[in-house]
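Repro:
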Amino acid sequence: MEENRRRRRGTRAIAAASVLLVSLGTAVSSASAREAASPVTVAGTSPLTSSPLTTAIPPGSYPPAGDVAAKPYMGWSSYSMQVYDNGRWITADQLKAQSDAMHEQLQEFGFEYINVDAGWNDGIDEYGRPTPSATLYPDGLEDVIDYVHANGQKFGLYSIPGISEDLVEQDLPIFGAPGCSTGDIAVEPHQSADAWDIGIKIDFSNPCAQSYVDAIADLYASWGVDFLKFDSVTPGSGFTDGSLDARDDVAAWSQALERHNIWLELSWAVDINNVEQWQDQANGWRVDWDVECYCQGEALTVWSSIDRLFPRMADWWRHGGPGGWNDLDSLNVGNGSMDGLTRDERRTAATFWAVSSAPFYIGNDMTRLDDYGLSLLTNPEVIGVNQAGVPAQPVSGDPNLEVWYSLNADSSYTVALFNRGRTDRDINVDWADIGLDGGSAQVRDLWSRKNLGSFDGGFVAEDVPIHGARLIKVTPARNSQITVNDDDLRVGYEGEWVRNDNFEVPAVTQPLPVTVTDGEPAEEPEEPGDSAGTRTTILNNNNPDIVYTGAWSQSTGREFGDYQADVQYTERNEDSFSYTFVGTGIDYITERDESQGNVDIYIDGEFMETVDTSRPSGEPRQVQQVVYSISDLPNGSHTIRGVKKSGSYMLVDRLDVRQESLLDPDTAAFDKAAPADIDVELLRDASELVGISVDGTDLEEGAEYTLEGNTVTLGSDYLATLPVGEAAVDFQFRGDYHDDVHSASENGAAVELTFTGTGIEWVTALAPDQGEADVFIDGRLVERVDLSGDARRTAQVVFEATGLRDRAHTIRIVKVSGEVLRTDTFRYTVARNRS
C-alpha cells in the first residue's frame, strides 16, 4: 500500500530545509550548424538558388555538450540498499567503497554519480543550514566528497520541501541576508510542506525565503555537491488535489542552484499536469512510485514495479529530452541474489531504462555485482541507446506484446520488443508502424551485438520469453522514406505552439449497424445515450486502451449484473485509471456499494470533481451506475482519469464514449425480400474515407459500393450476401498521423527539422482556418505554400523538394498568415545505408 510505504519512509531522519539543483529548460530544437545551401528542386518548379533571407528566424539548438543535463546521468543511489538491509549505507566508509567499486568496474562506461539519499544530516548550524552527521562522517562530509571527486566522479545529496517547526521557533539569522530570520519565512497559519508532514511550508512571497534557499544552495556548492534529489514534490507524490503544493520550493531551489551547475532531480511520482514547470526548472523528474518493493533482506524490487512503468511512460515519453529527463528510479539489475527479478526481467528492465532515455543509475551494492549484472550494465551499444537521449514511444497494439521505437539522428531506428505476458511469444514489428517505408532494413541485435541480416517489411522476434525483451537497431535500405511525426524530439519549434488542443483530427472507424432481414420488419437498433448526430461506444473494463496504474486486478464471472460480468478493481488509494478517447463526452460506470469510496475525476488534466461511489451500510449493491458524466466537450482527443481516494475498493465496469456521427443515417436496414441499395451521406470530407469493410474484409469500390461526392451507396447485390441478423459495415476515416498535430496562431512561429537525405516532403492538413507559410531549405526561401482549403483534409503533401545533395539539410516552415498553422509530419528520403 502506498500509504504504508510513505509512513515507512517518513521515519527517516530528513533535513528540515528544501534544496535542489540547476534549472535548465528542455531544449528540443534542431542543431544550429548550417551548411551552405545546394540547389533544390521543388516539385513542379525549377531549381532555386536565391540568396539567404536575412529575415529568417535564427534556428534553435540542442544544449551544448557541457550542459549538466545534455544526456541522462549514469550512477548510483544509496536508497535501494538503505531499504534492503536498513544498514548504514551512507557512512563515509560505505560511500568510499561504492565509489571505488564504480571506479573499478563501471566508470569507463559512463557511470559517474554517487548520490546519497535521506539521513545524511543530523543538525543545523547557526544560520539554520543543514549540517552533516558527525557520526556518519567523522572526518567531515567534505572528506567523502573530495574522495569521490578524486575518483573522477560526482556527488549528490538529498532534501525535501519546507522548514522545520524547530527552526521557525529558534528564529535564526539567515546567512547573507541582514534583517532576515528563519522565524519570518513560514506560511501563517502553518501548513504542511511534504507528504510525511515533517516540515512547514515556506512563504516565498517573503524575499527572505529565497535568501534562505540561496544560503543553503551556496553552502552545498562550497562542499562540492554536484546533484540534489528533491523529494516529496507536489503536485504529485500522492497529492494532486491541491492540499500540498511544492511548486514554489522547486522554483526557488532551481533559481538558487542554477548558477552552481548542480543537477536538480525531482521525486517522487510528480504530476504530469505540471510538466512544463518541471521541464523549465529541473533536470529530471520521477514519473512513478518507488521501484523498491520494501522486502527487507529479501529483494530490492519485484516485476510488478517494473511492469507498471510501461503505461506510465506511454504518457511521459514525449516530455523527456536534452536538459530534462524522465526518471524511472533505480535500475536494480546488478545482482540476481538481491534484485528480486529473473534474468529475463533484469534484462527487460535494463532495456526499458535504455530506450526511455531514463537516468541510468543503479541501487545495488556495487561491491557485489555478479557477472550477468555487469554484462547488463556495461554493454556499450545499450548504453549508447540510453545516452543518445531519444526517448522511445510505443506502437499501439497488444499491451502484453509491446513495441517501442525511437528515430535516431542518423536515420536508424532503435526498437525494443517486450513480452509482458505469461507465456513465451513471438513479437512482430512492421516497418510501417515505426514510420519506415522502403521495404527492407538491416537489423542488429544490440544485446548480443550481432547483425541479423536484412528483413523486408518488418521483423519477428521469435520466442521472446515471459517478461523478456529484444533490443534491435534497424537501419533503412537505400532510398527508404522516413516519416517524422510532429512529436519527435528532432522536430524543433519556435514561438508559441500547442499540441492538439482540438486542432487535430483523429483517425476514426465508425460502424454502420445494418439489420438484415428476409421478409420480416426490422427493428431500429439502439445505442445507449444517443441523440441526434451522436453515437455511443461502449468499452468494457478490460479494454487494452484503458491504462491502469497501480495494483489493479480483474474479477470475472461475477453474478451481480455487471457489464459482461466482470470489473477491474484496486484496493490501494492513489491508484488510477485513464483513457484517452476521441469524442464529445464520456460516462464512468461502476457499482455503488458500502465497500466503495471517493474517486477524483480529471478531464484533460483538470480536476473536475470527487464522486462518491459508496452506499450506506446494509444498503444493497447497485451495479452499472453512471457515477460521472460529461458532455459537450469540443470534438477531439480527451483523457479521463479517475484516482482512488477512499473506501476498501475502487471499481471500473465500463466507459461509454460519445462521439459525433460521421454517417447520415447512422443505422440502416436491408430486407432480402425487397432488396434496395443503401445510401449513406458522409459528414466528413469524402477524401478522408480510406475504406469500408465488414468483419475485417475490405469492400471493393465500384463493385460492392460506390462513392459519388459525399454519398456512399452500398450495393443491394452485396448486401444480399450478408446473413440475416445484425451486421456492422465499418467506415474507416483517415486522420492526422498518430492522431496529433502541433499548431501555432502567431505569424512568425516556426518549425524545423534537420535530416540527411536527398528529398523531403512536408505533410500536413489543409483547412479553412489556415493561410500561407514560407518554406526554407538550408536557410533559403524556396516556396510560399497556401494551406487553406474549403474543408479540413488530413495528410496532404503540401511541399516537396527533390534533387538535394546527400548530406545534412534543414527544412524550416514559418507561419505567414491565417488563423492557425498546423504541422503533422516530415517525410525524407535516405539515399544510402549509413550503418
